[in-house]
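quick q for whoever's on today - can somebody do inverse folding on this one?? i tried earlier but teh output was garbage lol. tokens:
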């Protein structure tokens, strides 16, 4: 065999070796297969490359010079393919996936499918790599609370009603039996927009609006924002939410009120919650009570929830209901308070600061 022939043969076999080794490493679907391929192609004692190396060494100087660069190129490509296969299998194992599915990736890294396709292999797609997570926002805790309040009172037979946040004095005060000289109407305690209109200071406005357009029986709740120029602290904010309830029919009593509020409190906060009434005063209810609740009566810890009472006859007269024929109860509770109690939130300002660290917990 002439020297030239020996060189040509070695170059040809190098290419054959390269093709076979790359394919074997790419196809290796588990550690054992990869190891077998390593021994066969790169084994130190009787591996294919070792044999090629021996023949290379036997070449005369001129032949070495011709083959050398190609020899080095093939060696580094094959070794690289082996390391890649190793990394791929380790990654698959770390992700607990099925490395089999990853067995046919093209070698060229970011090379597009072309390489794999022309080589007659399946397109590379690793079904085991976790997908990109779509980050979803969360609903505001108050939105959660409001939705739940609507559900609970819905089960108790209350329909949802609504009214405007910019109100006139009739709906915010007069029809609710709050006369012009009443301190609640002090401009310093309200957000007046002009002498006749203001941001509503309570959701009791919606009682009037509903009764003005509807005959009894009435059984509604209204939930929404109310505004008062309070100094901000852990329990006060100039805007907050109330839930208002109104039930008007023949023979409605204070006992109905207490039952409804207790059933609500237990549905929202748990079966052990108790409520209690304390005598109070509101211009639009008579008698009036403050509603407290607690789930640890023995601990003596009561939290004020809001106000309630039997609808004052003057309110019925203002909307054209006959107070001799109908009675009713009304209540107004703070939504933030309920939500804070439920989640152990201690500062009302957290609701309005848009701090994602707070909001994303809900
Ligand atoms: N509107 C009252 C308030 O804002 C609460 C209330 C509603 C009291 C209904 C009695 C009846 O304080």
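ok took a stab at it. sequence:
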């Amino acid at each position: 065999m002439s020297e030239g022939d020996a060189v040509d043969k070695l170059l040809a076999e190098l290419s054959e070796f390269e093709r076979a080794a790359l394919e074997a490493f790419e196809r290796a679907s588990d550690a054992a297969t990869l190891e077998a391929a390593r021994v066969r192609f790169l084994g130190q004692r009787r591996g294919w490359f070792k044999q090629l190396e021996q023949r290379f060494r036997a070449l005369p100087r001129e032949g070495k010079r011709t083959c050398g660069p190609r020899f080095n190129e093939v060696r580094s490509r094959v070794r690289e393919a082996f390391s890649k296969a190793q990394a791929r299998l380790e990654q698959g194992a770390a992700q607990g996936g099925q490395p089999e599915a990853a067995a046919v990736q093209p070698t060229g890294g970011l090379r597009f499918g072309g390489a794999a396709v022309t080589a007659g292999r399946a397109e590379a797609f690793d079904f085991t790599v976790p997908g990109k997570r779509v980050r979803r926002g969360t609903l505001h805790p108050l939105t959660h609370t409001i939705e739940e309040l609507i559900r609970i009172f819905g089960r108790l037979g209350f329909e949802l009603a609504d009214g405007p946040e910019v109100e006139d004095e009739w709906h915010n005060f007069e029809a609710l039996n709050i006369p012009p000289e009443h301190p609640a109407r002090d401009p310093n305690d309200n957000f007046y927009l002009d002498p006749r209109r203001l941001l509503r200071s309570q959701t009791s406005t919606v009682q009037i609006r509903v009764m003005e357009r509807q005959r009894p029986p009435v059984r509604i709740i209204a939930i929404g924002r109310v505004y008062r120029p309070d100094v901000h602290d852990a329990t006060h904010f100039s805007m907050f939410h109330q839930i208002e309830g109104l039930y008007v029919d023949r023979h409605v009593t204070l006992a109905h009120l207490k039952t409804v509020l207790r059933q609500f409190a237990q549905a929202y906060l748990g079966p052990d919650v108790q409520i209690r009434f304390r005598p109070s005063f509101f211009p639009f209810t008579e008698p009036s009570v403050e509603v407290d609740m607690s789930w640890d009566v023995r601990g003596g810890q009561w939290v004020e929830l809001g106000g309630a009472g039997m609808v004052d006859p003057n309110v019925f007269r203002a909307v054209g209901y006959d107070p001799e024929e109908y009675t009713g109860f009304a209540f107004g509770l703070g939504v933030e308070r309920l939500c804070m109690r439920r989640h152990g939130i201690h500062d009302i300002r957290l609701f309005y600061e848009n701090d994602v660290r707070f909001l994303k917990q809900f």
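fwiw The chain has two domains: 3-125, 141-359. also The beta strands are 159-161, 166-168, 192-194, 197-199, 218-227, 239-249, 274-282, 285-294, 303-311, 327-334. so keep that in mind when u check it
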